[in-house]
Protein 1
Amino acid sequence: MSAILFIDTTQDSCQLGLYFNGELHVQCHTIERQHAAVINSMIASLLQEQHCSFNELTTIAVCAGPGSYTGIRVGIATAQGLGFAKQIPVHYFSALTLLNYQWIQEHAAAAGFYCTVLKAREQEVFFEISNENGEIVEAGKHASLADFMQTLENYTIKKLYIQTNTNFDLNVITCTQVFKETVSISIKQWNQYLQLFSILHSTSENKALYLKDVFVKV
C-alpha cells in the first residue's frame, strides 16, 4: 500500500498530512517558529498513529514557499533527507499554487481568473494567477506592488477574484477582493489538487523552488 507524506512549514504552524489506505490524516503543531524542533517527532508520531512504516512511504510532497525563510528550509531539508534515505521521489509545490486551487474551490470554480496575493517586503508582494480550471496563467512571482497592479490589468477581461493577506487599494480595477488575516493552506485541498492533476503519478521529480532564484530579488 502506497503512502504519501505532505509537509508544509511555510506558515506559522507546522502541518503534516499522510495519505494512507485511501484516507488523509493531518497533524498540526501550532507553536510558532518551532518547526525544526518538532517536525521529526511529528512525522514519527503521525506514521505510528496510522500504523504506517517509513518503508511504506512512496512519495514526499513539500511546500517550497513563499513563506518563512527558516520554515521553508526546514521543510525542504526534511523532505530531501527522507527522499534520499528511502530513494523515493520528492515533489515541490508553491504555496501560491495550492492557495489558488483552494480559492477556486471556495467559489465552486466560477468562470474567471483567481489570484492569491501574499505580503512580502514593504510595497512588495508574492502572487500567482490561475483560471477556473486551476491552470496557471501567471506563475508565482515576487514583484513590486506597482508591477503587480499593472499585471492585473491584463486579466480584467473576465471576472477577477483576489484573496490576500495585505491591504492595498484596487479601486482602479474591477474585481472581487477578499482580505484574509491569515491565508492558509488546507492539507485536504492540497491532496485534492494532487489527485486531480495526477502530479503524484509523474515519473520525473520536480525541482525545488529555491528561494533566491524564484521568490526573492537579490
Protein 2
Amino acid sequence: MIARGPLWLPLAILLLLAALSFWIEQAVRLPASDSPASRIEPEGIMENFKALRTAADGRPQYRLSAKTLKHYSGSKHSEMDAPRFTQLDASAGDVRAEAERAAVSPDGDEIDLQGKVVIVRAARPGQAEMTLRTERLLVYPERDLLHAPGAVTLNDGTVAVQAGAMEYDAKRRVVKLSGRVKARLQPVTR
C-alpha cells in the first residue's frame, strides 16, 4: 500500500502560503480614491490658513482665510472651519463672506460656504453698506459670482428684503433675487 501523507503536505503548505499572500495583499491595499474611507483622515491640516490671489498685474483680487483647512488627497477637495472670503476691489468696494464651514472644489473654482453665512458689501459713495444672511452660499471666484440657493435676508439700512434665492454679480454689482421676494422700506435716521 502506498502512503499518501507525504503528497498532501506540500499541497497544504502551498494552500497556506496562497491564503497568507491573499491576506497580506488585502491588508496593505489602499482604499479607492472616491470611497468614503479615503475621506476619513485628511492628508494635511493647516491652522490659521490664509491665501491671497492676485491678478496678472499684481493687484490683489481676493483673500481666503480659515481657522482650519483640511485637505483630502483621495478626492482632492478641501474643507474649512470658520472660512472668510473677501473679494478685493478698490473702485467698487470689498465684498466679504463668512460662514461656519466651507468645502473647496478640487480645482478651486467653487467654494461652498455653509452655516450662518453673512455677506457684507462695503459702503461706497452713493451706496450704504449692505448685509446679506443665508445658510448656504456658493462662491465662484474666477467668475466674480455669489449664489445663495436658499432663503436670504438682505438689509442696507433703507430696505429689508427676504427672498427664496439670490445671485450676486460682483463685477456689475447686481443682486438678482428670486422666489418669494418680500421688501420693507425702513425709515432713514439722520
Protein 3
Amino acid sequence: MPILLPDGTLLRGPRVNIPETTGHIHEFPVDADNVNQWAETGWVDLRVSSMTRWIERINRIQRTTGDHGAKIGNGSDEALGDFARSFKPGEVVAFIFADEFDGARIK
C-alpha cells in the first residue's frame, strides 16, 4: 500500500493496486488530480490536508459520543466511549460510514 508523505514523497513496494490497471493500460499521468484521487481511494495519506480531516473526524466522534459513549452500527458494537483511552478501528470505520456516507448496516 503506497504511503504519501507530507512533502509529497511516495513510498511504495513492488506492487500498487491503486491506480487500478485494466487491460493493457499500465501507465497513468501523475498529476495533482490523480494523486489526490488515488490517495483518497486507497493510499495512506499523511499530508496536512488529510491529517486535518482526521482531526476533524476524531473531534466529531468525541462530540457525538460525549462521556457516555454511543452505540454505532447494528447496536451490537461496543460504545466508542472515552476515545482518548480506547481506540477501536472497526468502530471508527463504522462511525465514518454512518456519519459521512449516511450508511447503516441493515440485517
Protein 4
Amino acid sequence: MSDLVEVEPGVWSVIDGTRVYEVRVVGEQVLVNGQAVEVASRKAAAGSASGPVHVRATMPGKVVRVLVEVGDAVSAGQGVIVVEAMKMQNELKSPRDGRVMQIAAAPHTTVDAGVVLVTIE
C-alpha cells in the first residue's frame, strides 16, 4: 500500500512500503528523485481516473473554510478546503474532476497531517 502526501506546492512524498520517492512537478515535467519521467498529461489522467480519491491534510492545522458541499461537481485543481498551518492558509485542491462524496472536517476544527478531509469520486 502506498501513501502520497503533498509536502509543498508541486512536491509530493510517496511512500511505498519501505521505499520513499520525492515527486516534483515543474511546469509540464515530472521528476522522481531528480530523474525526469514521461507521464500522460495531467488533464487526461484526471479525466480517466476512477474510484474515490482523498484530499488529505498536508500538515497539522485548523480548517478555516470548506469551499464545497457534498454533491458538488469539482474540476481538477479546484480548491475544496482551506487549512491554516503555521499561520499560513493553504488551499487544498481536487486532484481530478469528480463529485464531492464526503466532507470529513468542519471549519474551526483541528486536523492531523494525513487525515482525509474531502473524498471525491
